[in-house]
Amino acid sequence: MKHQAAIALLIAILSNFSNCDYCPVSAPTVSVVSKCPTTKTEWDEAASRKKCSHMSAKCGNKSPVYHCLLNQWRNETVEVCASNWYISGFCAIYNTEEMKVIDDFSRDCTNLTGGPCPTRYISTDAYMYQGCYGKRNTSTSLPSTDKQVHVSTDCTSPAALIAIIIVLSLLSLILSLLLVLTCQEKISKSVMYSQCMRLRKQTPRKEKGNKEKRPKSPH
Ligand SMILES: *[C@@H]1O[C@H](CO)[C@@H](O)[C@H](O)[C@H]1NC(C)=O
Ligand SMILES: *[C@@H]1O[C@H](CO)[C@@H](O)[C@H](O)[C@H]1NC(C)=O
Ligand SMILES: *[C@@H]1O[C@H](CO)[C@@H](O)[C@H](O)[C@H]1NC(C)=O
């Protein structure tokens, strides 16, 4: 019972994980460039140089395509072959840790002067919104809170996946231990004993209920 619930949970997390645009094959294609294309022509030229279409590896079911974006710290522009992503009115960035193209939720680009973006655009059109390529002044140190880029909530990052698994394992271990201890302590008292047995029967059901709710919450 318990194991089945755990396996179901794991499958749910893993399938969620593969549906998102986490793209490990993009990581080795990252190269730092001094500047990104500013026009469609330049973008196409850069794309044919990068040869993303020659890659046989895929990001889930999508083919990696050419991108030139700021990284998550906004201190470097990188060229990368990654799956495209619909951006919802924010600047697009490539996160080298999450290994995918994401919205930089700290920067709305719908009212950028000299090239506002629409509320929905495909990440390969990023060159049209040059206001998004402004690097941070890298010589001044930034407050630590400013470095954070919001992680998109519609998919599970590898770190989050591992954290969830560890937390769940610990929880179930602690719960089992508590149950055993409680039962041993009260075994002499017959009234308590019967209650304990009832508890024992109830607990796996409760635990399963909790676990099944978890995979749905990221959506
Ligand atoms: C960009 O920022 C990251 C994180 O602070 C740092 O590790 C990296 O060296 C920086 N790169 C440049 C070119 O400043
Ligand atoms: C963009 O629009 C928001 C909301 O209308 C406003 O608060 C913000 O100051 C604007 N930014 C610029 C750069 O115009
Ligand atoms: C960054 O800011 C410092 C101090 O404000 C300034 O001296 C320096 O020229 C700036 N660097 C760039 C690249 O803008």
Automatic annotation (TrEMBL):
Signal peptide extent: 1-20
Query: Quick check: keyword Transmembrane in the entry?
Result: yes
Q: Which residues cross the membrane?
A: 159-182
The name on file for this protein is Uncharacterized protein
Task: Could you list this entry's UniProt keywords, alphabetically sorted.
Answer: Membrane, Signal, Transmembrane, Transmembrane helix
